[in-house]
Each structure stands twice: as structure tokens, then as C-alpha cells.
Specification:
By secondary structure, the protein is α/β, with parallel strands linked by helices. The protein contains 14 helices and 8 strands. It has an 8-stranded mixed β-sheet with strand order 3-2-1-4-5-6-7-8, with helices on both faces. Helix 10 runs antiparallel to helix 11.
Length: about 300
């Protein structure tokens, strides 16, 4: 199919490349001229100079995938929607707050514009090979785009999880769980590093843990790679761990629902604390983020 794509960050570029591989054509837009120029050289890509031009380049009914930071989603939709008509579809693949997605779906439906919220998991490298997609919205619209979701995801890595907002709700909880898992890993490896009565090769331990242990995981593989890149002391990695929306929103939702969320809440507070008291645990978390998210985590 021919679809519009807004946002050519690390995740966006990975998804567009996968779309091209699967035989789709894409009209792209981004305010980052370097990212646009990089994509412009790819066969099957048309560059739009504005959101209006992007909409005009697509045949009705249009499909436009938005892949930008959650703070920018509403601005994109506000600029884009006047150029859309009934039966067109907006797909938000960013980490938007699920209540915002519910509101956007409701407002767009008044103009008969379809809206799907898709939580995208995996990071740029995994997304390039096939992402994990959590789709929220009307079941009929999910079925309409099932082939697109299959093309973008890894085997068994996509599904319809509920009505509008559910995709971003499930991704929000995913990010909260991620907080807890990373914090547990960070604390455990910090204990081994502090045990100076042994000379433990932490990279070796991560490699052992990731193969056949109960705690083997993609994250453990990322930690092994991080130690390979930065060394056991992680001296070049920031000790201030960023706190983003997913963990904070999960904690608030848990409190609202009366769910005891000790692990995720503690992990969130640890990141906040690291802003004034940098720590080795926070360095591990940032090193992990560099591996699965491609974030710049070096000390400033």
C-alpha cells in the first residue's frame, strides 16, 4: 500500500525501511532535513515538504502513520486533520498517554476519520527486524490493516488488545514493567561490582545469565553488549537515569486502580533520585537504554 509517514527518528527510519522491504511505498515528512535527505535516496520514498503536501500526495482513503514523541502528537494531528476527509485513517505509533488517544479517537470520529493507537515495542534494531505491535481501536479497522501490522512486526508480535486507547495503555504498562526489570538488573549487578572480595567480570556474568538461566532475556543480552562497549565501570555513561512517561503513568494508573505497585514505583523513584545523586545503578539503566533504544547516554 501507499501510506504517509510522519517522523523519521531512529524508530521511524527503521519502520520505513521495513515497509519498503515489504513492498509498500511511503510519502514521508519530518522537520529534520538530514533525516529526510537520508530517506529520500531510498526507492519507494516520496518526500513531502509539509503535512498538507503529504496528505495531497496520498490517494483517498488515506493512511498516515505518526511516529513522533508523545509531546508532539497533538500538534501533528491538529495540522494534519484539516487536510483529511471521511474514511481516512491516522495511526499513532508513539508512546502517547492512553487517555489522550481515547480523546483523539472520539474527536476524529465526529468527522468519520479513523484512528488507531499502536504501542510499538522493540527499539530501533528490533523494529528493523520486526517490531512488537499492540493495537487499540475498532476491531474492523484493525482487520483492515492486519497485513500492514504483520509486515511491520516479528512473527506473533502483533495483535488487537482492545478499543481506542488500549494499544497505548498496554504499551504504558509494558514500559512500567521494563522500569522494574531494569532496576532489578541494575541493583543485582551493582551488588556484584561492590563485592570487592571477588574480581567478577560483569560482562561474562551477563553473558552467562542470558543463556539458559531463569532470568535470561533480551535485556540481559543488551547489558552484555553495554559492558562490551563501555567496560564494567561504565565510566563514560551518565549516572542520571532519565524518567519518561511510561513508568510515571503506570504508577498513577496503579494507584487509581488500587493495585500495589511497589516494584515499578521504587524503580521510578530511583530514577528521580539519580538526578541529584548519580549512581552506578542508574549508569546500568542508561547503558541498557543505549543498547535497545539507541539513546545518547554519555556523560555531559
Amino acid at each position: 500500500m501507499h501510506l504517509g509517514y510522519v517522523g523519521l527518528g531512529k524508530m521511524g527510519q527503521a519502520m520505513v525501511m521495513r515497509l519498503l522491504e515489504k513492498g509498500h511505498s511511503v510519502t514521508v515528512f519530518d522537520v529534520d532535513k538530514k533525516a529526510v535527505q537520508k530517506m529520500a535516496r531510498k526507492k519507494g520514498v516520496t518526500v513531502a515538504k509539509s503535512l498538507k503536501e503529504l496528505a495531497e500526495d496520498l490517494k483517498a482513503p488515506r493512511t498516515i502513520w505518526i511516529m513522533v514523541p508523545y509531546e508532539n502528537v497533538q500538534g501533528i494531528i491538529s495540522q494534519l486533520s484539516p487536510n483529511l476527509k471521511a474514511r481516512d485513517t491516522i495511526i499513532d505509533g508513539g508512546n502517547s498517554f492512553y487517555q489522550d488517544s481515547i480523546s483523539r479517537a472520539r474527536k476524529l470520529s465526529k468527522r468519520k476519520i479513523n484512528f488507531l493507537d499502536v504501542g510499538v515495542g522493540g527499539g530501533p534494531e528490533s523494529t528493523r527486524k520486526g517490531a512488537c505491535l499492540m493495537v487499540g481501536g475498532p476491531k474492523s479497522q484493525y482487520k483492515r490493516y492486519a497485513k500492514l501490522f504483520a509486515d511491520l512486526s516479528c512473527k506473533g508480535g502483533y495483535g488487537h488488545v482492545g478499543e481506542s486507547g488500549a494499544g497505548h495503555f498496554v504499551k504504558m504498562v509494558h514500559n512500567g514493567i521494563e522500569y522494574g526489570m531494569m532496576q532489578a538488573m541494575a541493583e543485582g549487578f551493582a551488588v556484584m561490582k561492590a563485592a570487592t572480595y571477588y574480581s567478577i567480570d560483569l560482562k561474562q556474568v551477563a553473558g552467562i545469565y542470558k543463556n539458559g538461566s531463569v532470568i535470561e532475556s533480551h535485556l540481559m543480552g543488551c547489558l552484555e553488549n553495554a559492558y562490551e562497549e563501555f567496560g564494567n565501570d561504565l565510566t563514560k555513561v551518565s549516572g542520571r537515569a532519565d524518567e519518561t512517561g511510561g513508568g510515571r503513568w503506570t504508577v498513577k494508573e496503579a494507584h487509581k486502580l488500587g493495585v500495589f505497585d511497589r516494584v515499578i514505583h521504587t524503580a521510578l523513584n530511583a530514577r528521580k533520585k539519580s538526578q541529584t545523586r548519580p549512581s552506578y545503578e542508574a549508569q546500568i539503566i542508561m547503558a541498557l537504554r543505549s543498547q535497545f533504544g539507541g539513546f545518547d547516554v554519555k556523560k555531559k
